[in-house]
Design goal:
alpha/beta, about 270 residues, binds zinc ion, 9 helices, five-stranded mixed β-sheet, Udp-n-acetylmuramoylalanyl-d-glutamate--2,6- Diaminopimelate Ligase, Chain: A, domain 1, 2 domains, six-stranded mixed β-sheet
Length: about 270
């Protein structure tokens, strides 16, 4: 197969990712951007994934990937030795030896104009979508989380069932009375416990998130905020699938796909 343009460099892909998911939107505790690699190297084969795991790293190695765009950062925590003793540094060692770069957009992706939380509410046909926690002074008025109005009032039970279908998952957990009518929905992909208060304050009836602790669930109930929990994996995996399509459209000379081997470690019976 021939292409009429050459493969992008890692720098060109990084520049594109920073343009669509500006790093100013990332949380201060986060570790985002190009985390591993030489940005002058080519990125002819690009894999997106939610997380660099032994499974997704093996796929990248076998498929001769040059750039992994992993939603979750690797490395995330600082380290003082790069050995194979612990999983994160073992994976880093393997990827670096194979010359595989890693870029992580993480919370910049969560909060961007076309980021995961925006997409989550668009999938539910919400209107008037706004950040749950606007970043003070942000030039585009962006920030973390999103809230919007559902197309029509619905019961929490019906809403949870609809979410289960849209996310194509075997079960959802929810907090709140199933027959309660909801109109305004918040979104906090991943672990959304820290958004309970903001969602309640901004008039949300329900917060859609991946996971929340028992105490966050109790706090939501105490604040009369319903929760719908789709699991951390499902709450973000669709975003990295869509990201692979965006990168492929932007760089037609590159081969781009979302990891085929990563999966939710949690199972249900
Ligand atoms: Zn996450």
């Amino acid at each position: 197969m021939s292409t009429n343009s050459s493969a992008p460099t890692i720098r060109e892909v990084s520049d594109y990712l920073r343009a669509i998911y500006p790093l100013r939107l990332a949380e201060t505790w986060d570790n985002v951007g190009l985390l591993v690699g030489d940005d002058s190297a080519p990125a002819a084969r690009i894999m997106t994934c939610l997380t660099v795991t032994p499974e997704s790293a093996d796929e990248a190695l076998e498929e001769q990937v040059q750039l992994i765009v992993a939603h979750h950062p690797l490395p995330f925590h600082s380290f003082k030795r790069l050995t194979t003793e612990l999983t994160p540094t073992r994976l880093l060692w393997q990827l670096a030896q194979a010359g595989i770069a890693v870029y992580s957009p993480h919370t910049a992706f969560d909060s961007a104009a076309e980021g995961i939380n925006q997409l989550a509410l668009e999938r539910l046909n919400c209107a008037g979508i706004q950040p749950l926690l606007p970043k003070p002074g942000d030039p585009e008025g962006l920030g973390a989380g999103r809230a919007g109005d559902l197309p029509s009032p619905t019961s929490l039970g019906e809403f949870a069932a609809r979410v289960k279908t849209i996310y194509d998952i075997p079960c959802v957990q929810f907090v709140g009375q199933a027959d309660r009518v909801i109109t305004r929905c918040g979104s906090a992909c991943g672990s959304g416990g820290s958004f309970v208060s903001a969602a309640a304050d901004s008039g949300c009836d329900v917060l859609l998130t991946g996971e929340a602790s028992f105490h966050d669930c109790l706090e939501a109930r105490a604040r009369n905020l319903a929760l719908v929990l789709v699991g951390h994996y499902a709450s973000e995996r669709f975003g990295v699938e869509q990201l692979a399509e965006r990168i492929a459209q932007q760089f037609p000379a590159a081969v781009v796909w979302p990891s085929r081997r990563e999966s939710d470690p949690l199972q249900t019976v």
